[in-house]
Amino acid sequence: MKKALLITLFLCVVVISHAQKLVVLGTLQDGGSPHMLCEKKCCEIELAHDYVSCLGLIDENDHSYFFDATPDFVNQSRYLLNLSGSGAFSIFLTHAHMGHYSGLIHLGREASSVDAIPVYAMPRMGTFLSTNGPWDQLVKLKNIEIKGLNDGQKVKLTNSLSVTPLLVPHRDEYSETVGYLIAGTQRTALFIPDIDKWNLWDRDILEEIKKVSYVFLDATFMKEGEVARPMSEVPHPFIEESVALFRSLPLDQRNKVYFIHLNHSNPARVKNSADRASVEALGFHFAEFGQTFKL
Ligand SMILES: [Zn+2]
Ligand SMILES: [Zn+2]
Ligand SMILES: [Zn+2]
What we know:
Blueprint lengths: L1 H16 L3 E6 L27 E5 L5 E4 L5 H12 L4 E4 L5 H4 L15 E5 L1 H9 L3 H6 L3 E5 L6 E4 L2 E7 L10 E6 L4 E5 L12 H7 L2 E5 L20 H8 L4 H4 L2 E4 L13 H7 L4 E2 L5 E3 L1
Parallel strand pairs: 3-4, 4-5, 5-6, 10-11, 11-12, 12-13
Antiparallel strand pairs: 1-2, 1-14, 2-3, 7-8, 8-9, 9-10
The protein binds zinc ion (3 copies).
The site of one zinc ion has 4 residues, from loops.
């Protein structure tokens, strides 16, 4: 009897260790914190693993996927690959803003000099990388292999895991911008680190929240006036606006929301702050480094 119990426990551990999971690898806006030339209190916060917005995914074969290659890619990849126990990985890119692809620089000859790492990218993003230095060298030397994506077209990663890019409106200077729908064995997640405003999207975010198990959404700024520059130059849904929109959802739907991609200036970065508490009191969450989510 005891032996049977031990065997069951052992099998459980094996099954759990090979379950598909999402891992939060970073929560900050592109410029991170400390932020270049910021002398304010917001950049005196010292937290371990305070990295730029990134989601990791480990599949049932221990292959890792990074949703964006951030300026903190070295530390984030070390963490995720240690967790997976395998060195195999691929990358999905959302867009060509510095926080989302510049970590690719560590894959070239001057650094890890990897061999044919799959980099999933939309058409303009792929062309941008292939035709502009220094990224084109990664392509020419076959450090990376660009895998083309199309809006709304599902990419099957394993028998029970798929990723679908969804175009979102954003300042698309060099590439399109996508969010990702990640569908696992039992659960699904939506990741949109950057979008201009919810009402500019051709999808209804409230309906999209209802369809999935978890959402990780753009929470760059708390509210209007947070930074001393015209905020219309850098549009994002303010947390205040998202909360006003999402609060009509029932609690079980609000519980799915994890805010991510917070600017250094965002007061909700501070745990126990009034801004953060008021959002959490309504059932919403803030993504935190190391959180894992079963799929
Ligand atoms: Zn960003
Ligand atoms: Zn700051
Ligand atoms: Zn962006």
